[in-house]
Amino acid sequence: MADQDYSESAFLEFLRRSAVSGIVKPATGRARKLAAEHLLVQLKSHERLDLRVVDVDELCSRFHKIQGSTIRPENLEVYNQRFSSALQDFFRWCENPAKFVSNEGELPQAKLVARRDDAGQAAAREELALNPPRSPYDIFPVPLREDLVVYLQNIPLDMTRAEANKIAAVVQALAVVDEEK
Fold it and tell me: pTM for the full model?
């Protein structure tokens, strides 16, 4: 379609509408919008009119030169990936809005495994997720009475006396007042 609007304003409207209408997941929409907000300020005037001419890597390079050491390279790479995928979706949406499906990336590994598993494997995977195995090394039994054992878990091996006193204070606060017999 020759009359499609590929401008910055049309792109921002697409990001807003795609998140609101459910075309993309809300978290994906927010992440893409954040990346776009950071990178779009570096657009040149001719790029603002037609985003198809934007070289995302070069745009990120401009952004990095201005931001300098205030942005970490791994953050810039994430912005690059999110902005690139948002632009790809925008261009495909402009070409055919009626048949558009977001390219949010590959299916999460869990969904791929779930499709592959049979009913027995799925049940076993669910059981592991709900009741993960525990290491006997990080659970400390504390016998209180003949018929009662309390277990302490997630105690750091490098715990200080001050930290132990904090835990002891919490336990003491939970105790009922001793009655004289």
Answer: 0.56
